[in-house]
Amino acid sequence: MPNYVVGHKTPDSDSIVSAIALSYLKTTLGEETVPARLGELSPETMFILDKFGFEQPELKTSYAGESLYIVDHSDRVQGPDDIDDATILGIIDHHKLGDITTSTPLEIWVRPVGCTNTIIKMMYDFYDVEIPKDIAGAMLCAILSDTVIFKSPTCTTADIKCVEALAEIAGIEDPKALGMEMFKVKSAVEDTPIRDLVLRDFKDFNMHGKLVGIGQLEVIDLSIFDTMKDELIADIAQLKTEGNRHSVILLLTDIMKEGSELLVVSDNDNLTEKAYGKATVNNRVWIDGVLSRKKQVVPPLQDSLA
């Protein structure tokens, strides 16, 4: 029976490509391992898989009795619902250390870098395994996505060096141009159902016993949301009620202006003022320089809810 590699619910490109890249590495090392996913894929992720010739990983939501590697998260609320009934073989992640625990020793790679695929590149180097051209290209795209083409404050020298090395393997002459092509795909939101947009890159967090959902949409021109914002706010309000959440925030991130407008529905009227020093007006607030959910949005919000 093979082992599995799976990322978080509502998977992004890093989560999916990490599953593919790690499963190949483990299988090459003699440990039969299969990539899986917990949800549907975004247009950007489909673009990456199509470009490099990959099928979608298996949709698998139950892991009771299975052995698996967890990638791109370590928070229980973001993983499989029956994770307590599975054997965790390892965690590879670039976020804060979450609350997943194990009863046996495990392999764990957690690094303060911009993307899980940067860590997996380090693992390939550590085990001296050659990265196939197609996997290198997909990994490169995942790093460019997570680091917002190196603009994110989460981006490190390691991420940049990994992209350079992966570009050489994949034969990609201009990684940044490929990154812009990806973000154009991300920015194509017309005719997409509002709920699909809200959940495109959405994560739940347990913040001191309060369930907080945070989504993010990264685009190259924020004006595409001008006619949608009222509908987006109404939908996150509905999502808050449906999930019995304390708060729901949707980041509308403009990668060219390098900032985000936060759409907010919360039990706390002063949520953003307390966390970020700026109050919402009509459930909206613009914050310059905010590109990263995990580094700039989650930590101050979690501290403010303590």
Automatic annotation (TrEMBL):
Keywords: Hydrolase, Manganese, Metal-binding. GO terms for molecular function: inorganic diphosphate phosphatase activity; metal ion binding. Its EC number is 3.6.1.1. Residues 179-305 form the DHHA2 domain. It is an enzyme of class 3 (hydrolase). InterPro entries: DDH_dom, DHH_sf, DHHA2, DHHA2_dom_sf. The keyword tRNA-binding does not apply. Pfam families: DHH, DHHA2. The keyword Cell membrane does not apply. Its cofactor is Mn(2+). It comes from the Bacteria. It catalyses: diphosphate + H2O = 2 phosphate + H(+). GO terms for cellular component: cytoplasm. PANTHER family: BNIP - RELATED, MANGANESE-DEPENDENT INORGANIC PYROPHOSPHATASE-RELATED. This is inorganic diphosphatase. It comes from Thalassotalea piscium.
